[in-house]
Amino acid sequence: MVKANQTELFVNDDGQIINHTENLHKLSDLKDKMIDTYKDTPLTTLLWSVGGHEVYDYETEIGERIGDGYENPDESTKTRAANLKSLIKDCGGPVTGLSKLCHEAGIKFFPSLRMNEHYEIDIDSPTYGRFRREHPHLLIGKPGETLQKGSLEHGIRTGMDFAFTEVRNHRLGIITELVENFDIDGIELDWFRHPAFFRVEEAYDNRHLATDLIKKAKDKIDNVIKSTGRTVKLAVRVPPTLYDSARIGLDVEEWIKKELVDIVIAGGGFIPYSTPIDEFINAAKNTDIKILGCIERLRPTKDDDEFRGIAYQYLSKKSDGIYLFNYHGIDTKWKHTMLNEIADLDSLKGRNKKYQIDNFTRRNNYSQLGAAFSNAIPEVLLPITFDNYGSELDLSIFIPEPVSNQASAKVKLSVSINVENLPKPNKIYLKINNNLPELVRETTSEDNSERIFLFNGNHINNQNNLQIGLDAQQGSNSCNKPTITGLSVHLDYNN
Q1: Could you read off the pLDDT of 178-210 as tens digits, one per residue?
Q2: To 10 degrees, what angle do helices 207-228 and 165-181 make?
Q3: Residues 257 and 242: beta-carbon distance below 8 Å
Q4: Domains in the chain and their CATH numbers?
Q5: What is the pTM of this model?
Q6: Most distant CA pair in the chain: distance in Å?
Q7: How far apart (Å, rounded) are the C-alpha atoms in residues 158 and 193?
Q8: What are the backbone dihedrals phi and psi of residue 381, each rounded to the nearest 5 degrees, phi first?
């Protein structure tokens, strides 16, 4: 699968095949359902999540295996536990088996360790993890502490607090087992599932503690390299900016400066157009550290044109490759087509793409899931609300590929505005780089939540300044303030 000097293409498989596939008994099942789905694609590295919440889906001898010690687990746990036991019996276990299969297929294999997963799981569930259940004083939220529901602090309370040596040592034990006991090409420490590791007020000042853990992990890997001659890489997936990484306690800039890591996956993929991957690339200059841009399918990035646009943006900025999260479950045909299309910049030229201004509504969701993401993601431009009817908003959007005097592609610009606060009829006006484009059509989204205005994009360049306003004569007496929820530029090479 892997060609010399090709773009690095990483795919993270979150372990769904173990979790939800019944009767997963043999190594051949893993080959059929996982490895063969990437046949004839440019995949370079497959990453596989070994578990979460300190409950593991692999043949660990030191961690808690899924289902162990529970007499009446739920059906999902039964399936996971049965699959794990069957694979251990057949091939030694999923890490042993996947490593073998990947190497036979000519691709690299990295187990992926979620550093602090904290979904909203019942404390008595077999998936909660005994380590947290038995050591509540080691969590970010302290026993007996009252936290306002809906606050960030409440949302991240069940995550482990890396200020404690016991927590860091627990993580290091699993890392050590994986790198010492298995024939792997590297290990990913996923600091984005989920990005909260310290109490909010202590995070920045505690960043040296995460650095110490990274250094110890690197030392373990270096010892393995010296004793076995194997090549083992350390990859980290981190928040979308160096500043926000440090703010939550991850001194990624220091990790790069001291070359404590080999691969950095920039961002969780939630704001890919706003992720300043340039700063990671610049920080890694004069090192052998590779920088990859992350695309997250559940952002959601389910539009193929958008998928190509994000990939083009990362590669045009000289990232070393693309990292895909939550794309493992897509059908084989899609994988073959789209992964080949993002293999490099040349493959992407002349193909439809969509570029957007990021909108991150999930960042304001202080649920158990949303809080940690909110903790790590910076502000983005959208959504943005008009002060009133007749007011004007200034926005900008960058298009990384040549579009000036573009003869082969039809360029369109789309603006979405919430319907609830936009009475009909109402006119919108738009300037693109001080030019007035033609309004092609107006539609309503499938869920009736947005009105979508499509403009001719003939005036689009690489760097674009936009002015958007609403007719003050219609709806101006309304107390509602309309909000721009989306703005995108579509390059249609199919016309």
Answers
A1: 999 999 999 999 999 999 999 999 999 999 999
A2: 20
A3: no
A4: 8-352 (3.20.20.80), 384-492 (2.60.120)
A5: 0.95
A6: 77
A7: 13
A8: -70, -35
